[in-house]
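[AMINO ACID CHAIN]
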Amino acid sequence: MEDLETLKTKVKKLNAQATQAKMDLHDLSEELPTNWENILEVAQKAFDSHKALMAARKELAAATA
């Protein structure tokens, strides 16, 4: 198990990545139908980023409990 500070840093990093992925998806949606070919790629990146963030938050919660 990672130490508490490492987990907090990991969550911060993943949160920033997830936020960026969310914004990329939002930006793409506003540009549609331009770049429609990128929908699956951008959505998958957003999904993966948020999945990793939720797992890290769960790990952090378990470590602080």
User: Anything to note?
Assistant: The chain has one domain: 4-64.
